Write the structure tokens for this entry.
Amino acid sequence: MTRRALSRTTPWILLALLSATGAWAQEARALLAADREATLTSDGPLLLERIEVDLGDRFQAGQVLARFDCSLREARVGATAGVHKGALARLASKQRLVKLGAIGGLDVELAAAEAQKAEGELAEARTAASHCLLRAPFAGRVAKRHANAHEVVAADRPILSIVSDGPLRLTTIVPSPWLRWLKVGDAFSVRVDETGRSYRASVAALSGRVDPASQSIEVLGRIEDVRDLLPGMSGTAAFPTMPASQ
């Protein structure tokens, strides 16, 4: 492969270079990412009463990460609960009267519809009140804090960015001709720039599409030993060498 051909490829890929031993050394740049990540928001506007975690803190799934002042929402739960209770009482009264022949069946159906509507409004109020506590959807760490206590946060405004603990996703883009030998389950190593160390990894998945412009394909890998690794780190993935004839 000529220097000119190499210069036309994407800088993300370090194409295979022919060594003096006649073997191909396969290397490609790689990026580490959390298996799961999310940016948590409110359905405000709500007053942010307190944030329970800070940058880098670990938390468990379901743990409360932030609390909002939801006095108005809690009051609405009480009001709609009263309306629902009254609607059920009227429905029960109509049902007794229809058995006595004092009213028709239409009156009962209308009372039942009112009770159903009140039940829906109560469920809606309770759901809104449940959002007064911002809970972690999974176990992980705080990657970024976007807001502070005592601020009024608008709807969809970011409050916390979080990433999951555990195995990291490793993504790399390699030349598509590697598909002749690269398979799911193949082992390889990754030298991470930030730590200066090499780690064992394996191919977890291959993209279902080749990029025709760069003749490359995305590869998803997994690293199990992540004790000193963080999402966002990058490095060089080194795949086992193959004879040039292959």
Remarks:
- The helical segments are 3-7, 71-99, 105-130.
- Confidence is low (pLDDT under 50) at residues 1-23.
- The two ends are 16 Å apart (CA to CA).
